[in-house]
Amino acid sequence: MLRLEGLRAGYGPVTVLQDVSLEVNAGEVVTIVGGNGAGKTTTLRAICGLLRPTGGRITVDGRDTAGLSPPAIVDLGITMVPEGRQLFPFMTVRENLMLGAYKPAARARIDERMEEVLALFPRVRERLSQMAGSLSGGEQQMVAIARGMMANPRLLMFDEPSLGLAPLIVKQVFEIVDRVVASGTTVLIVEQNIVHTLQIATRGYVLENGQVVMSDTGPALLKDPHVKRAYLGV
Amino acid sequence: MRLALSFGGLAALFALPFWLIPAIDPEGSGFWQHIFVTIFVFAAMACAWNILGGFAGQLSLGQTIFYGIGGYAGAMLNQHFGLIPWLGGIAGAAVSVAIAVAIAWPCLRLRGPFFTLSTIAFLEVIRLLAIHFKDFTGGSAGLPVPMFVGTEMRIGWAWMLFRDKENYLIIAFGLLVVCLAASWAVRNSRLGFYLVAVREREDAARAVGVNATAVKLAAFAISAGLTSLVGTFHGIYLNFIDPETMFSLPTAIQVAMFALIGGLGTVTGPIWGTLLVVPIAEAARGWLGAAANGLHGLVYGLVLVAVVLTMPKGLVGSIGPWLKRRLGGAAEADTAARIEAPEAAAPGEERPPVGEPLLEARNLTKRFGGLVATNDVSVTLREGEVLGVIGPNGAGKTTLFNLLSGFLAPSAGGVKVRLPDGSWVSPGSPHGFAAAGVARTFQIVQPFTGLSVRENIMLGAFHGTRSAVEARRIAEEVAATVGLTGLLDAEARSLTVGGAKRLEVARALAMKPRVLLLDEVMAGLNPADVQQAVELIKRVRDSGVSVIAIEHVMAAVMALSDHIVVINSGKLIAEGPPSEIARNPAVIEAYLGEEYAHAAA
Amino acid sequence: MDILLQLIANGVLLGGVFALISIGLTLIFGIVRVVNFAHGELLMVGLYATWIMATQFGLHPYVAALPLAVAFFFLGALMQRAIIQPLMNADPHIQIFATVGVGTALANAALMIFSADLRSVDLPWARQATDLFGLASVSRGNLVAFAVSFVATGALIAFLNRTHLGRAIRAVAQNRYAAPLMGIDVNRIYAITFGIGAGCVGLAAAVLAPLYPAFPTVGSFFVLTAFVVVVLGGMGSLEGAVVGALIIGLVESLAGYYVAPDLKEVVYFVIFLGILIVRPAGLFGVRGNE
């Protein structure tokens, strides 16, 4: 479904991604593992169209996405749940969810979709008329994921969903990620907490200095001595 | 070499009118003399404005307040008391500085466009008052500069009035030199570094001990005093002053615009900007005459928009880096690869024992409206220990840090710090805490992005020294400690998160603190980096710095801390050594979760 | 009639005029986060445009309001695309300079084209006084301006809260980074918002043309008042702008009579400075906006 070939990208004079090739097939859960500054978030930003690649290709169903704006990428069925939640703080949870279905295609059946998503996240339903900014960090993360699901995406990308959350909340967030996976949505996830993500991932890529250095199934990577040494500190 | 070049440039600028005018205007109409006086006067004012608008980043559009005060002081003291304008100008500058301080005090609390609006509002108020109190100022009818008082003819050097226009050129140029020299001196002093730091990131500047209000106030006052001196001269040169021309918003905009076109925050930029724009506009006015009423304003407006769109850094700011690149500067390479492991601890070094209390917070409470963010929290940090602070998101940990570093004032309770001489102090501001030896980092990293890594660390080092050379030495030493030596000359904006976190710690360490507050320096780092960070903090501790660390990375907290406090919903729910905290039922319920308890057991 | 009641009536109606001028300014700031220092000059252009349409084509100013608002929508959107858009990520200083430059250029262009003479639209009906419940006497033009400002503000608030586009506009204001991830074209929203803000100015110009003459510096005459109103009400708050406008209208009316006519502006500038210092977010503002 999604394929990256020899992707290069960076910020101004700094090249972050040297050569990134990876693919995500329908129904998979793919994770990108890597150290700080290895280029994980940059990869997601490039896929979303938030960052213009300087080389290589990104294709969705074989179609080159070069030059497409973030809204056009959303149209292709790719949605990102950004790092740090990024809700609209002075709007209600309901309005946040409605904005998740902003594109005309999603807006057409917004009420049905709202029911489907709320069925998946019952705790969000209790908060519908509350201001998003008044929720706790964990609840905000839930709303952010629900908002991403509102677009009925074919591919949902998570950028560090557990960052800055307390351990107890991290556990709840992962339960929700599991629920999204179970609902059949294709997932690409970037996460520091690699033990959990590699357990649920069908495949994983290891990114170092902007290059893919290794790829395998999730559980296999978890057992790999290099991964263990570099990312688990054991 | 650079100095010689600068002096050469100045001499050439001074010689320019004397050489140029006889050549292009042999009849001596005075038109070109007037243009050069105008250029020198506006360049001087633009230099003065740039100290506030460029270095300090405070875009004032009310600087003609001081130009007007200078003008009125010179004329009124002359008229009423027969004071020569040289003294009148100094008196006016003194008044301007006093008024600048009075105005700046409230205005400087505002940011961005709001500061600008408030300066415009003050300018309007003062102009309206000048019109209203006509007994003193002559009102909107204006005030002529007296040439004769009785039979005494007030002309010549003492009175700044001449028949020979060349003398005006000399004085105007003298004022330009004074303003330029002041600007150069500010830029190269600690004040200059502090101004840039405050402009870039006020919070981070305050954390390294900069009294942000005081340095901005200083810039405001210096700028006002210089502007006032220019105003005195220009009022006399124009022979007539009235509120519309002296307290004029368009003039204030022009002055700021010259500095912008030349290059905001560069020393010579304001001169280049004035040299470029004034002749174009004045020449257009001279050639087309009254038929083109408004033409020079139109030119100013269009040039301003064009410059802003094509080279927002101005002539000097855009051409300078271009020259540097042409002369062979290396491109930025990958910064992540150049981070090194921090220096290893010297083998065999013994950890100093934990000593007496060094920082004590008693019954701290902080309310925001109805929300109690911190509720009756007391913590004690002992000398040489690492105190861990944990708790769920939104529990009030960062609020606690802001209270412990003076960024927030507590609603109740207090914080005291023990000084090396054994006495206790309770500072009330970030720079007060910095002076007491407390340094901090920010959860969301706050590098001064426009500065190099070296300059960033120097800003911390300036806390202990006024000397730039000494600050540079300290910066290099600290960079080696945290593993940033290879990146000293890189721009801070090019750092990765991991690098920026190290820089955050380095800047705090350069202050040579006795207490270091670390706010989630490990968030976002991978396990291998966390390991390095733990080693670094241990080394810092062993060098005699006491540490309070907020962390979510449990393995690190448990490994590092001598003592842990747990915060939940603003309240302290538990404290004790790590082993106890891990077993505490309240902590497990609120924060760690059952899974952690099983794993730890 | 009681002089105090008359002064209050004058003040409230003047407040309506100020509100009409201020809503566009506050909308643009609230969403695009740019303080448009050329706002007054847009009004000046609108007053001249109304004058030309009235004197050259005999168009009634109130009839001209709609086409003028539409034309100004496109003018505003164009200004955003050409000048503000390239500077969206620049330092706030640079944005201030850009709009100051536009304002300076427009005011001086008007001086070149129309000279400094006053150009008035002749509409005696609007200047005629009408009796207000026997309590005060006010001009009909002022009543129209007052009514238009309330209807326009109400319509804008409803638009922002009830429509998908309105919700997207608010989303952009609250989180510039997340909005594109929802599929919202942020740059288009900025252009639309700038257009709506400018459209409000076009509407205001047509409604005010019978009451105020056009001259090159009329913009700075109004814009400083508009800034005071907007800061008082809270930058970005439409409701706040209306309340702020009423307060400033009353202050101007009462201070002009009880203090001194030439110091009435000093009085509200002092209020302005006081508000900036004591409560920089304004009466209805959200903290953090300053």
UniProtKB/TrEMBL annotation, chain A:
Asked if the Swiss-Prot or TrEMBL record annotates the protein with the keyword Transport, the reply is yes
> What residue stretches are annotated with the ABC transporter domain?
2-234
Q: Which SUPFAM superfamilies match?
A: P-loop containing nucleoside triphosphate hydrolases
- CDD domains reported for this sequence: ABC_TM1139_LivF_branched (cd03224)
Query: What is an example of a GO molecular function annotated in this UniProt entry?
Result: ATP binding
Which family would the database say this protein is a member of?
Belongs to the ABC transporter superfamily.
Keywords associated with the record: Amino-acid transport, ATP-binding, Nucleotide-binding, Transport
**Matching InterPro entries:** AAA+_ATPase, ABC_transporter-like_ATP-bd, ABC_transporter-like_CS, BCAA_Transport_ATP-bd_LivF, P-loop_NTPase
PANTHER family on file:
HIGH-AFFINITY BRANCHED-CHAIN AMINO ACID TRANSPORT ATP-BINDING PROTEIN LIVF
Task: Indicate whether Amino-acid biosynthesis appears among the record's keywords.
Answer: no
Q: How is this protein named in the record?
A: ABC transporter ATP-binding protein
One GO biological process from the UniProt record? L-amino acid transport
The lineage is: Bacteria, Pseudomonadati, Pseudomonadota, Alphaproteobacteria, Acetobacterales
Which organism is this entry from? Neoroseomonas eburnea
Q: Which Pfam families match?
A: ABC_tran
From TrEMBL, chain B:
Gene Ontology terms describing biological process: D-alanine transmembrane transport; L-alanine transport; L-isoleucine import across plasma membrane; L-valine import across plasma membrane
Task: Name the keywords, alphabetized.
Answer: ATP-binding, Cell membrane, Membrane, Nucleotide-binding, Transmembrane, Transmembrane helix, Transport
Q: Is the ATP-binding keyword given for this protein?
A: yes
Q: Which GO terms describe its molecular function?
A: ATP binding; ATP hydrolysis activity; L-isoleucine transmembrane transporter activity; L-phenylalanine transmembrane transporter activity; L-valine transmembrane transporter activity
ABC transporter domain segment(s): 359-594
User: How does this protein sit in the membrane?
Assistant: Multi-pass membrane protein
Q: Where in the cell is it found?
A: Cell membrane
Instruction: Choose one Gene Ontology CC annotation of this protein and give it.
Output: plasma membrane
On the tree of life, the source organism's domain of life is: Bacteria
Short name of any one Pfam family annotated for the protein = ABC_tran
Mind telling me what this protein is named?
Branched-chain amino acid ABC transporter ATP-binding protein/permease
From which organism does this entry originate? Neoroseomonas eburnea
UniProtKB/TrEMBL annotation, chain C:
Q: Name one GO molecular function term.
A: transmembrane transporter activity
- Its domain of life reads Bacteria
Q: Which InterPro entries match?
A: ABC_transp_permease, BCAA_transport_permease
Q: Which UniProt keywords apply?
A: Amino-acid transport, Cell membrane, Membrane, Transmembrane, Transmembrane helix, Transport
Its Gene Ontology cellular component terms are:
plasma membrane
Q: Which residues cross the membrane?
A: 12-35, 65-84, 96-116, 143-160, 189-208, 214-234, 241-260, 266-286
Q: Name the predominant localization.
A: membrane
> What is the recorded membrane topology of this protein?
Multi-pass membrane protein
Which family, according to the similarity comment? Belongs to the binding-protein-dependent transport system permease family. LivHM subfamily.
What is the protein name stated in its UniProt record?
Branched-chain amino acid ABC transporter permease
Name the source organism: Neoroseomonas eburnea
